[in-house]
Specification:
The chain has about 55 residues and is mainly alpha-helical. About 55% of the residues lie in helices and about 0% in strands. It has one helix and no strands. It has one helix at about 25-55. The protein is flat, with a radius of gyration of 16 Å. The protein starts with about 25 loop residues before the first helix and ends with a helix. It is found in: Mitochondrion inner membrane. It is a peripheral membrane protein.
Amino acid sequence: MGRKKGVEFDEGASDDFDPENPYKDPVAMLEIRGHMVREKWIDIEKAKILREKLR
């Protein structure tokens, strides 16, 4: 048994989300909102790490 080279997350955007009618499936709408928020937080944390490295 060895370690994997990369990390794979199964958390992704919902496949059944319809941007034309977001209220058609409220669960998919909440999932996509959660996904977008997670992606924004990841970008913020990456920027913080890069900023610290540059100092």
